[in-house]
Amino acid sequence: MRWTHKYLMLWRQMAGQRLRYTAALVALAFAIGLTFLVPLVIGITIDHGLGGEPINEAWLAKIISAETLRDGLGWIGLLIVGLTVFASFFMFLEGALANQASESIVRRLRDRLFDRLQHLTCAYHDEAEAGDLVQRCTSDVDTTREFLATQVVEVVRALANLFIALPVLFWLDWRLALISTCVLPILVGFALVFFRVVQFTFKNMDEAEGALTARLQENLTNIRVVRAFARQAFEQEKFDKRNADHRAKHWTLYRVFAVYWSVSDFLVFVQMGLALFAGAAFVASGKMPVGELVTFWLYVGLVVWPARQMGRTLSELGKALVALQRIDEVLSAPVELDAADSPASLTDRLAGRITLRDVVFGHQDDQSVLDGLSFEVEPGQTLALLGPSGSGKSTIVNLLLRFYDPDSGVIEIDGYDLGQLPRKYVRSQIGAVMQEPFLYTKSLRDNLKLGQHEAPDEDMIDVANCAAVHDAIERFDEGYDTMVGERGVTLSGGQRQRVAIARALLQDKPVIILDDAFSAVDTKTEAMIVNFLRQRQGRATTILIAHRLSTLMHADRILVLERGRVMQQGTHDQLLQADGLYRRLWHIQTALEEDLKQEMTAV
């Protein structure tokens, strides 16, 4: 990324807060002006108040006499204190304004990031690590906030000190000024090199921290699986590797900082020592009064220390630019695109006729998951999909929900090309229960009424009965107000699936998709749910995916898929008459059920 683009990113982030930053700079100008008066007052007081020298400077003689100066030393002390207090006040004001601006920017930036994450393509989320995305939304944003809160104004402070104090030094004595600033170019050059090194080192450290966060997030999400397979030691080893890498990258960054601070401190003290030594020689030879040397030496400090601090500012700038680049990678990632205009004839509720014609789809360069797939479902019908893993069943679901768009072919709903309909509208017409149902860390009531907050409790209980989960909920102490743990861990797998089914039924969409929604449900409960669904048949077009043929046998039509193609289709009875996968699976499953019944009878 070109450096100009990086700085433009930083400038764009300040939009809407530039006036507040301007006010902070005005406050900073007052603070700097008052700070620069203090050395001048101290020097004049030493020479003409304490030293007793007559005032020869015409501009100063017009303001005050040496006698008045000597008589008012107490007031001079109060003046110095007053200047310091007012300078501190303006510095506080500058800091408060800059912090307010940075917090507003960061809040807007986090909102933009979260909104972007909601609209990024599913392909992006398939490849991205959740932990790394969390890192970009938290740590990288905080790095940006720290720079915007403190270092933006510090850049101006350092430059102002440099460009104001240097002319004053040369005005006081150009020979001593040359001696007192001879190390300054080395210090500035060293700071610029440090800036480049910090950018590279911080980028490596930040990426290592993102990988560590991703490892931790994945482990916590799947903690039950880890324990079930006794993989704690293996997971600990993987985490230790990521942690060691993060520590090494962090340690490298700290070593870079340590080298800079030690070398820059050495250069600063050398510069201050040279200024003091040369100034003492000037005073001893009568070329400069003591008070002027004090003023000069204080101004040297105002030049050298900010130059040394410039390294910190540049390091924070480097870190902020790296963080902004990582943030910009998310903000510039492609989002789900919708058609500019929706068909004027769209209704609030579609009938639910689904048509696929010669649909081809594949993930990136892999071979096609769907290869010229075609079928049609009439409104209110139930279509069952059967096939081995990788045959394209879940891919059909993803295409219908417009998580992806087909590479070629057409998908229609009620005659409308799905690709020409807004994704939000398409998803508002489809109720889906995915293979891994997700429940929020909320009450069961809130999870059931997701998207249907105004639904009466009677309807909620009705669909809970249909999903055979009402009795289980009633057995909880809090009933429907029972809080669900993260990702629904307080419920069994079957209970989670049944809650998800009830939630989909409550939404009462014209199309319902059940993608392996009974995998964790026992056969008896499954039969109850299927029976309820048959009673509701005709209210919605239903697409049913399952591996148990007892779940699919009552569907209006069954498609047997293999390698993205329809190998067989028909009703349950028709498929039993034909030689193929369906009949073989039916014989296997019925034989297993008979064996199980005999064993149970024997017991």
Automatic annotation (TrEMBL):
Chief subcellular location: membrane
Q: What is the membrane topology here?
A: Multi-pass membrane protein
Q: Which GO terms describe its molecular function?
A: ABC-type oligopeptide transporter activity; ATP binding; ATP hydrolysis activity
Which residues belong to any copy of the ABC transporter domain?
354-588
Protein origin, superkingdom = Bacteria
TM regions (residue ranges): 21-46, 75-98, 155-172, 178-198, 257-284, 290-307
Q: Which residues form the ABC transmembrane type-1 domain?
A: 23-319
**Compartments, record wording:** Cell membrane
Tell me which GO cellular component terms the UniProt record holds: plasma membrane
Q: Which UniProt keywords apply?
A: ATP-binding, Cell membrane, Membrane, Nucleotide-binding, Transmembrane, Transmembrane helix, Transport
Answer whether the UniProt record assigns the keyword Chloroplast to this protein: no
PANTHER family (alphabetical): ATP-BINDING CASSETTE SUB-FAMILY B MEMBER 10, MITOCHONDRIAL, ATP-DEPENDENT PERMEASE MDL1, MITOCHONDRIAL
**What's this protein's name?**
ATP-binding cassette subfamily B protein
Species annotation: Algisphaera agarilytica
